[in-house]
Every structure is written in C-alpha cells, then in structure tokens.
Amino acid sequence: LALSFENSHVNLKNANINFIFIEENDKSFSDEQIFYFGKLIGFGQSHLVQKYNLQERRYIGNTTMDPALSFIQANMVKANHGSLILDPFCGTGGLLIAAAHFGAAVMGTEINYQVARAVGKSSRMGQKFLTDDQSIAANFCQYSLNDRFMGVLLADASKHEIWHYNNFGFVDAILTDPPYGVREKIQKIGKKSRKDHYFGRRYPEKAKYEISSSFLDLLNLAARLLVVKGRLAFWFPSIERELVFTFFYFPNDLIYFNQSEAIQARNENQNNGVKNYKDFTRKQEIILILYQCLFSFSFFYSAKNRKFRILSCYLNMRG
Question: Its GO biological process terms (predicted)?
Fold first, then answer.
C-alpha cells in the first residue's frame, strides 16, 4: 500500500514510524545504483549467532548444527512460547537450544549412549575426554534455558511405539537433522549374530539402517505425533543445489509411507514419461523428491564411485 506523508509530523526523538533509506556504494560493475526506501518493521538478531557460538558452548559434537542455521530452522517451524518441539536425532541438542530460545518447550531422543550421556571422547580440538560439567543439560543451563528443557530419551527414533499415540497428536513441531552416514553412523536397534566373546554388560545391539529408511521413518513419525497444522523441518543431503534445503508442511492425509510406494511411484513416473510432479499427489511428490536426492547422495558417497567423483570434479565429497 502507498504511504501518505500528508499532515504527518516529524519527531526525530520519539517517532512512532521510522523510514530507512539505503544507498549502494559499489560502482565496480555498473554505473547504475540501486536505492532502497521503506518502512522499518524490525531489526535482525545477528547478535544471537555470537551469543550461541559453538566455540564457547560447553558440550558440542561432530555434527552440532551451526547456530545461524539452527535459528533459521527454528523460525521455520514457528517455535514460540507454549509450543512443544521434538528432535528425534538430537545429538548434543543444538537445534533444541535454538527452539528453546524462542520460548518453546523442547525434548529429544538420541540412540548413541555416549552422545546422550556425554561420556567418552570429546569432539573439541585440544580436549581428549568429556568432563562432568559437559552435557546437554549443561548447555541449556549455560544459556539460562533449563526451564524449557524437558530432557533427552536414550531411544531409537525408528521405534514409534515408545510414544503415546492419539488421533490429534501432541507435538507442535519436529525439528531435526538426521544422520547421513558420513560423519555419524546411521543405525537403529537390531540383532547381529552372536560371538563367543560377547559377555558382561552390553548395550542394545545396532543394525544397519538405510538412509532412505531413516527419512521415511521420520515422515511416519511426523504423521503420527504432529498436531493439526504441525510442522516438520529437517535437513537432507542433495548434490542438486536447488534442493539443498527443503521444508515440508504436513497435511493430515500424509499418513505412513513405505519403500514399496516410493518405488512404485518412481516407476510410474519413468514408464509414463512424466517430466514433473504435477500429475502426482502431494504424498507421491514428497517421496519422489526424497528418493531423487537420497539416491544421488548415496551414489556419490559410495566407495566404489570414488574414482568417478574425482573425475567429475567432486573433490570435496570424500566417501
């Protein structure tokens, strides 16, 4: 809408409305300059990146999310006071801290005992082992957010039966960064063949977990736990720049995905010569996009394709 300045009084000390004028100072590319003029609606919060920087955080891991990206993702799920947010692959709780800063109550699950309980070797340079004052809870206390931290369960995110289920859901948003199998293993609770030297205290055995299955399980978990108009935001790997980050909004009819549906939808797409997703349902579209990205990622990260990656100038992608 156009802004009218008629009968407007200027008050430089106590103004109700501020206008900002921005002028470019770069003439290296063109003689034309761009000017920006508009109403000031708010200020950015870039200071939060420094406040929550990883160098000063008590407990970090190999894959702790960058603070700036954490706050962007927390904004996308509309984290605020009164909302309940879950991270099923919480790690050291980097994403949960960002959501808690905006007032949300947060909780998470983590399958790795050493990460969840903060024991063993440290990921910080110059420090060999974790100390007693380093933990996920200590991170929340460091930023005075402990009243919003509900805890972390040592659990397998693929076991949805651990959650009480009702027809309405109880989680307002799921905010997560699933493992890709590069710096952290993709694993779930399973069984392996037993050997003679297995004795004494042992933790639940882990089985191989396909990257595609982990993301489909995440979609199923969201369909099970999210409230109506709840939000799911997650990162997934892609070598295609336009699909580096995708945000999915879940309508209620997106219930239970499986691998056979994904393969069937993909085959129908190929057999019919369809070049886009306009003829597919939203459910099929999400599955196809996921499998397109995950298949390309798995191909380029497999050891047998290492030589091809190097020849194709993917020098930064080390399997």
Answer: methylation
State the burial class of residue 76 (Cβ atoms within 10 Å of its Cβ: 0-12, 13-18, 19+).
middle
- Tell me, yes or no, whether 56 lies in a domain: yes
Question: What are the residues facing 173 on neighbouring strands?
Answer: 85, 231
Q: Which two tokens stand for residue 138?
A: 């200590």
User: Is the per-residue pLDDT at 245 higher than 70?
Assistant: no
Residue 182 resides in a domain: yes
Element containing residue 262 per DSSP (H, E): helix 259-271
Tokens 């720049």 belong to residue: 241
Virtual torsion, Cα 147, 150, 152, 153, nearest 10 deg: 160
Tell me how many domains the chain contains: 1
Taking 50 as the threshold, does the pLDDT of residue 304 lie above it?
A: yes
What's the rounded mean pLDDT across residues 108-124? 91
Asked if residue 116 belongs to a domain, the reply is yes
Query: Taking the CA atoms of the chain, what radius of gyration do you get in angstroms?
Result: 24
Question: What's the one-letter identity of residue 47?
Answer: H
Residues 6+ apart with CB under 8 A from 259: 212, 213, 216
Q: For residues 114 and 190, what is the distance between their CA atoms, to the nearest angstrom?
A: 18
For residue 187, how many other CB atoms are within 10 A of its CB? Answer: 18
Which of the pair, 74 or 12, is modelled with greater confidence? 74
Query: pLDDT-derived band of residue 41, with 50, 70 and 90 as boundaries?
Result: confident
CA dihedral 89, 180, 316, 70 (to 10 degrees): -20
Tell me, yes or no, whether 39 lies in a domain. no
Domain with 208 in it: 47-188+203-294
Q: What is the CATH number of the domain that holds 121?
A: 3.40.50.150
Measured CA to CA, the distance from residue 158 to residue 209 in angstroms comes to: 10
Q: What is the pTM of this model?
A: 0.69
